[in-house]
Amino acid sequence: MTSMNASRREFLKRSSALSVLGVSAPFALNLAAMGSAAAQTSPTDYKALVCVYFAGGNDNFNTLVPSDANSYSAYASLRGGLALPTDGILPLTPAVALPDGRQFALSHSLSPFEALFNASKLAVMLNLGTLIEPVTKAEYLAKSRRIPPKIGSHNDQTSIWQASRPEGARSGWGGMMGDVFASANQYRTFTNVSVAGASTLLSGQVAPQYQLASSGPVKLAARVRAPFGSSAVAATLEDLIKEQRTNLFEKEHAVITKRAIDAEMALSGALATAPAFATVFPDSSLGKQLQMVARMIQARDTLSNKRQVFFVQIGGFDLHDNLLGKHGLLQADVSTAMAAFYNATAEMGVANNVTSFTASEFGRTITSNGDGSDHGWGSFHFVMGGAVQGRRFYGSAPEIANNGANDTGSGRLIPSISVDQYAATLGKWFGVTDSHLLSTVLPNLGNYDVSTRNLGFI
After folding, report:
1. What is the pTM of this model?
2. Which CATH number fits domain 30-220+282-452: 2.40.128, 3.40.50, 2.30.42, 3.40.720?
3. Tens digits of per-residue pLDDT, 174-194?
């Protein structure tokens, strides 16, 4: 019996690993709940975290433009033909001015963000990126501090961003935050939800990510179309799939498949009864993904969910060429979709309960390669929501220079804020305790002074 229980646990563990790694496996395996996690608390309110991931490495310097006279002059000189003109940027006036007269402006393509910033619903992170511990340029050059491996590698930096661990990590910090509260949700399956395929960020150890399409839950083939047009055949096939088995693996497959079918039916029913939004979402991939997230939040009471972590993604940011032709279109899509999502949360009366944040594996160089920019390190990011301490910049404004005080060359910024600090601040708001953040979720957080672990943006 002991051997059987151990084998069962290993099967479930490996099933989760397949989901995390994106290996071809039955869709139902991605829906397995692998155990019972006791929540640190039993929350009575609802909260959700929503990660909006810019795949490819967003060009930070044409997202948030240095706009005070000295910085803009340096920016324009270093960027050359990539520099946005002064009539193509939107100056931001923060509630608390930056030191030394530093100022920043948004790309005109991000105009919906300007309104959110001015309404104190949007905050800006300055020079945020992957770190193991704080590092200065002198320490970087002397190799006296640990730095993340393979800076500039898409795969490696994506993993470190989403898991604070090298490529191959099986659990991400978003998923592990969801783990803490999985038992507070009636349907634990809907704790960590991706509308963009498998994500390391949402891979939990207790509540593996649930993947659905922007159109809704994905049904098993037999439930999409009755075989031979016969509902009786479909019902018989479903009974066979869910039938109890004596073989260990067949038995677990039946249990997991039944759970998948039950989850799909519950979610389909909850979404079908939810009223339509007055808010109009853009007809783009990201717009549809965020609309589905909004619909799931709308169904939170029907499904008895208290804590959820969501993941959506927009690609196309690896702009080594045609930066000016493509980047603005991506930015317009991002800002329009995220603004619509915020408006939908306000429409539902949960704007203070939902916090969205952007992520991307790295920023890009301030120098031009002729038609685009190359892989960098630190970047600028946004946090949006009713609970956000908005209309503020967080972190230190980097020097705008090639080989300046903040960079490793070509304007490749050494981050002054770590992803771990960013995630810890979000986790604290979500309700995760300091001890759990340090011991399990964010292994590098202990390398930072306790006074700097919470960035204070929410």
Report:
1. 0.87
2. 3.40.720
3. 999 999 999 999 988 999 999
